[in-house]
Amino acid sequence: MATLLTFMPRQAKEICSQSNTSFSSGEKITYTIYYNVIGLYVNAGDAQFTVMPTKWEGESAFAFTATGNSNRRYDWIFKVRDKYESIVDSKTLLPYYFSRSINEGSFHQNQSLAFNQKLNEVTTNKGESFKSADCTFDVISAIYAARNLDFKNLQVNEKIYLNFFLDNELFPSYFKYLGKETIRTRFGKFKAIKIAPLLVKGSMFEGGEHMTIWVTDDDNHIPIRIETPIIVGTIKVDMKSYEGLRHPLSSLIELD
Fold first, then answer.
1. 30: alpha, beta or left, given left = phi > 0 and alpha = psi -120 to 50?
2. Angle CA(184)–CA(185)–CA(189) in degrees, nearest 5?
3. Strands 159-166 and 136-137, bridge-based pairing
4. Which of 90, 19, 84, 26 is nearest to 52 (CA)?
5. What integer pLDDT is reported at residue 2 of this predicted model?
6. How far from the centroid of its chain's Cα atoms is residue 207's Cα?
7. 223 beta partners
8. Longest CA pairwise span in the chain (Å)
9. How far apart are CA 67 and CA 54, in angstroms?
10. How many alpha carbons lie under 13 Å from residue 174 in its C-beta half-sphere?
11. SS3 of 12, please?
12. Radius of gyration of the chain (CA)
């Protein structure tokens, strides 16, 4: 692991030296989550991502919040009430603090992490300390950092590397740039940038590059669609609503 991090390609550092130009405080984006197991997508739940201003030890910061809830009509099958929060430096988007509250069926977990970016150390709410690396994100701050990537100079299949910390472990990861295409959503046609993140294998996801994300091909770079296989079936996530965008949604080229 140490050797891999030492020779991590240059983009891992560049993602921490870029400026935030894609979002601002007050942004709120909601999504509908669809589940497909027998060839038919059903509305399985919703997710919401918000950005709010805050302070951390007197410094300007962003508070990112992501929530996920199963459709109440299917709660009797599998109830989900998840919440993730990340407080990050407003300039680097590197996290100071991360917490998650997971309530999925009979599984419940609450965890918080304190990041010391100067010492490359992460401390859990149980007092356990782990080594991290230069430019280490949590899973939420990594999403917002990736929105600021400059896709204009990337070649198809080029990888942008970064590190994130999850489940008491440091993971070197990347986003692979897959090019551009036009997709149709409930809003109309979008010019989109297509990327594939490297997933960590878990109880739901198989791991690898199987997830595909489409983000708007404009200065906002907001995710508008996500598709991924899971252990049983597939999931599609589509943007349902948006507000407080920093830039005009110029990638929307045809309204429905």
1. beta
2. 45
3. parallel
4. 26
5. 31
6. 15
7. 215
8. 52
9. 19
10. 16
11. helix
12. 18
Alpha-carbon torsion 227, 229, 231, 232, what sign? positive
pTM assigned to the model: 0.88
Among 42-46, 100-104, 196-200, the range of highest mean pLDDT: 42-46
User: Considering the chain, what percentage of its residues have pLDDT values greater than 70?
Assistant: 91
Burial class (CB in 10 A: 0-12, 13-18, 19+), 41: middle
Nearest CA-CA partner of 201 in 211, 192, 193, 190: 211
Which residue is listed with tokens 């991090």?
A: 5
Q: Which domains does the chain have, with CATH numbers?
A: 2-255 (2.40.360)
Q: How confident is the model at residue 105 (pLDDT cuts 50, 70, 90)?
A: confident
> DSSP string of 95-110?
EEEEEEEEEETTEEEE
Residue 54: both structure tokens together:
């805050």
